[in-house]
Amino acid sequence: MTDWKRRIPTIMTSQELLDRAFARASKAEVQGTEPFDTVKKTNIAKINAIGDMTVTTLLKYVRAFPRMDKEEEFFAELVDVIIGVDELKKALASMTWCAEKASHLQRMYLHKVKKAPSIDAVAKVTREFYGRFSSVVNQIDKDLKFAQRARDELKQLPTVDPEVPTIVIAGYPNVGKSQLTERISTAKPVVASYPFTTKGIQVGHFKSGWRTYQVVDTPGLLDRELEERNAIELQAILALKYLADIIVFVFDPSETCGYSMERQEALLRSIRGSFADIPFLEVENKADLDWGGTGRRPRISAATGQGVDELVKDIEARLRAERKTAMDELPR
Fold first, then answer.
1. pLDDT tens for residues 90-141?
2. How far is 8 from 15, CA to CA, in rounded Å?
3. What one-character-per-residue DSSP string does 18-36 give?
4. Of all helices (H) and strands (E), which one includes residue 208?
5. Quick one: which of 241, 269, 282, 286 has its CA closest to 75?
6. Please, which of 41, 169, 189, 313 could form a disulfide with 178 given CB 3.0 to 4.6 Å?
7. What's the number of CA atoms in the CB half-sphere (13 Å) around residue 38?
8. Could you tell me the fold of the domain covering 166-328?
9. What percent of the chain has pLDDT over 90?
10. Which residues contact 319 (CB under 8 A, 6 or more apart)?
11. Where are the domains of the chain?
12. 2-156: CATH number
């Protein structure tokens, strides 16, 4: 994903695109053998300047965006949740249409200028080109604006490596997932206001010996049906579905997160049922608040680091065991 992230340029509105094209055309001036020839050649240069720049820019926009059908499933579905793949494809198709229409108008009016019998006729044809060309470009203004918003969203998406062992941190909002992710990895989660404190998936890494691990901090999940989940929650579901080699489910037995342990237990059961083939590791956070916990799970404090080193060792041990089991099951 990183290559195209750098490749997508800032996308101009239709008016900005036209202003830049017409500004370039205003500088065009070609000397002919006599005044009429000069006017004709100059207007041809203006039409070419407007058409070439607009077509080249629009096609550059289209080619800069990733082809969703060639991307890994996680990324394609994440884009669909955040932006809408169909809407993005429609916007890019509109830009392609505009580039083709603009190129057609350019060729048509170049022919008309070349055939114009007088200076007045050249001026009339050129004005007509300006009007029709502007009308076509203005038709895709909403598509250009959508593509710019999509660009901004896409650049915020995390870079994930499906080949790296991945730990996904899950649980209710405000239980300390982001703090734990930051404690054990390089991630610096961006936090918003309650109740969905993490704005989106955050990815960090840590090394143990020669092996690198990927840590994914997911937005808070609420215990409700999939179709009722919002876009932020769906990002967490996708991370669990496509990325997780192990899920660390974080509880807050202090209930200062705003959710009872009963609801937190219900969410765990729901997620376990949906992702039965993924190993789970359960921990109870906020031990520093001296709430005692339930006694059924390891106690940690993401705030102070209490128990976190032991948690990381447990994660590594379980992932090693999973790798060994997978290797043992390979055909000899």
1. 999 999 999 999 999 999 999 999 999 999 999 999 999 999 999 999 999 9
2. 20
3. HHHHHHHHHT-----SSHH
4. strand 202-208
5. 241
6. 189
7. 5
8. Rossmann fold (3.40.50)
9. 44
10. 165, 167, 213, 245, 246
11. 2-156, 166-328
12. 1.20.120.1190
